[in-house]
Design goal:
The chain is of the alpha/beta class and 363 residues long. The chain is built from nine helices and 14 strands. Helix content is 23%, strand content 19%.
Length: 363
């Protein structure tokens, strides 16, 4: 009997996936070493479906969950899904906190799929920050309590999510110690972990990172030179001049012609007047002024800890965003960057899902 059971657990599984997105579930199954006989997906975002088809052309797509007849999938082994948290998000003004709204209607399609398909195992995911009332309702319908796992354990991203599953013996993943600096194509991070990747990342501006603690941005050193400029007919002053194109100046025998300079001006508030410029706390202070207004009057504003140098601030590239979700590089290529960011932000951290699905090996 033990030999038979051991053999059966490696048989290919039939998978039903709701709110499938870019099919992170399929990728996680592969990483967990679980063979797949068939994978049927419900998803309405055409860009996500494009990414899914580009990577897994054998997945069968069925469209809108509200139109699904899940009795067709009786005998399937595993139901995956994480309904959109848009209506429950703590970032949404007037978010839903009861089971009366659209957010719960979407979740109940997952419950319907579980009942109609009679899948033996299930895994449901949603945001850790949803209201406790919602969590309690989900737990009541699924019959299990959630497990919170932070993606930071397996990736460079702080991303707390709740997972409801009847897969047994789920533990916290090992902390792999991956930092934001480890996934950057170039540039410098001023924090150890990225903020949570969101579907609206394409609109990131520096204010989001500095003040709202979201939409992580990084710094890229820019070339500069020290130049003598006339201030009148007889007097010159030395000025640091930063290149606007991100290139180094031509190498010469004069050291000051090619610099990465200090202090570090990394941004501004308002129109960027003298008291509205933001600098790193490393490097030298800007010159103190007896005059000048603004939020940083007379001293300037200091916000981010960076090595000496001048920097441009940029968004994460799509590849870096993919790495935060432990996706393969260029997994989402083939659609616009705007849609890539959206699809990535809506997706799962693949290595967390693979860790949970790994529990199937012990059955």
């Amino acid at each position: 009997m033990n030999c038979l059971t051991n053999a059966m657990k490696f048989l290919p599984m039939k998978i039903l996936s709701l709110f499938d997105g870019i099919s992170c579930g399929m990728l996680a199954l592969q990483r967990a070493g679980i063979p797949v006989e068939c994978y049927d997906a419900f998803e309405i975002d055409k860009y996500a479906v494009t990414v899914s088809k580009n990577n897994f052309p054998d997945i069968v797509h069925h469209g809108d969950v509200f139109d699904g007849d899940f009795t067709k999938f009786k005998g399937y082994d595993l139901l995956l899904g994480g309904s959109p948290c848009t209506y429950w998000s703590i970032a949404k003004k007037g978010r839903e906190t009861t089971s009366d709204g659209m957010g719960f209607k979407l979740f109940m399609e997952y419950v319907r799929a579980l009942k109609e398909s009679e899948c033996k195992y299930f895994l449901y995911e949603n945001n850790f920050s949803i209201h406790q009332n919602i969590k309690d309702e989900i737990s009541k319908h699924l019959g299990v309590q959630p497990i919170m796992i932070n993606s930071a354990l397996v990736s460079a991203q702080n991303r707390k999510r709740c997972y409801w599953t009847n897969i047994p013996n789920i533990t916290q993943p090992e902390d792999l110690g991956i930092m934001l600096a480890d996934v950057l194509e170039n540039g410098i991070s001023w924090q150890d972990k990225s903020y949570c990747m969101t579907s609206s990342y394409n609109g990131a501006v520096l204010y989001n990172t500095l003040e709202r603690k979201q939409r992580t941005m990084v710094a890229v050193p820019v070339g500069a030179a020290q130049r003598g400029r006339y201030v009148d007919e007889n007097t010159t002053e030395q000025h640091i001049e930063v290149r606007p194109d991100g290139k180094s100046n031509c190498l010469t025998t004069v050291q000051k012609d090619t610099l990465v300079c200090s202090p570090v001006r990394i941004g501004q508030c308002g129109k960027g007047g003298q008291g509205q410029r933001i600098y790193s706390v490393r490097g030298k202070s800007v010159t103190l002024s007896a005059n000048g207004g603004g939020q940083g009057a007379k001293t300037g504003l200091y916000k981010i800890d960076l090595p000496d140098g001048d920097y441009i601030i940029r968004k994460l590239t799509p590849v870096e965003a993919e790495r935060l979700q432990t996706l393969p590089d260029n997994y989402t290529e083939g659609i616009s960057n705007t849609q890539r960011y959206k699809c990535i932000g809506n997706g799962w951290t693949v290595d967390v899902i693979a860790h949970i699905l790994g529990g199937l090996h012990g059955i």
